[in-house]
Structure formats: structure tokens, C-alpha cells
Amino acid sequence: MSDTGRQSFTDKVGAAVKPDSEKSTTEHFGDKIKGKSDSAASSAQPQSEKSYGQKIGDTFSSNSNENEPSMTQKAKNAVGLGNN
């Protein structure tokens, strides 16, 4: 379960699993906005205040803001779906 004010894990997975070629322009835009706002919320929330589940979720979505691709993006890149 995600912390209050953060994007839910099911939304993140749903956006990551659906191929970019099947997304509408609106979906691409929405994913980008949600990702940026979730990343900002991750940065604003101190690690000490994050739930255990949120810490794990941030690790998988690479919301540590260290300019590294997320595990999901790395997987997409490995199978040739990484060009967004």
C-alpha cells in the first residue's frame, strides 16, 4: 500500500505493463505528470517517515532520484520496449 499523497502501486504497474505503442497521447501525458508528481512527493517525504511498503515501492520505481532508470525501465530496455 502506498503512503498518502503517493501514486498507488497498482497504477504504477498498470502504466508500466501496458506497451507505449498502445497508449494514447493522453495516457502518455498522464503517466509523465503522475510520475513527476510522485517523484517530487518521494523527494519531499523523509525516508524516516516512509512506510516499509513505500520504501520498497520507491526502490522498484527508482524514486530515489539518483538519475538511474527504474527496474521496470531496465526490463523494458532489455526487451526492446524502452523507447518512450
Note down, in words, how this protein is organized:
The protein has 84 residues and is an all-alpha fold. Helix content is 56%, strand content 0%. The protein is built from four helices and no strands. It is globular, with a radius of gyration of 13 Å. The chain starts with 8 loop residues before the first helix and ends in a 6-residue tail after the last helix. The mean pLDDT is 79.
Short précis:
The protein is mainly alpha-helical and 84 residues long. The protein contains 4 helices and no strands.
Largest sheet: none
β-strand number? 0
Which sequence of SSEs, written as H and E, runs from N to C?
A: HHHH
Shape: globular
Question: How many alpha or pi helices?
Answer: 4
Tell me what portion of residues adopts beta-strand conformation.
Answer: under 5%
Helix content: 55-70%
Look at the helices and sheets and give the structural class: mainly alpha
Q: How far apart, in Å, are the first and last alpha carbons?
A: 27 Å
Unreliable stretches, pLDDT < 50, 5 or more residues?
none
User: Mean pLDDT, rounded to whole units?
Assistant: 79
Rg from C-alpha positions?
A: 13 Å
Biased composition (Polar residues): 1-10, 59-75
Pfam family, one: HSP9_HSP12
Keywords: Stress response
InterPro entries: HSP9_HSP12
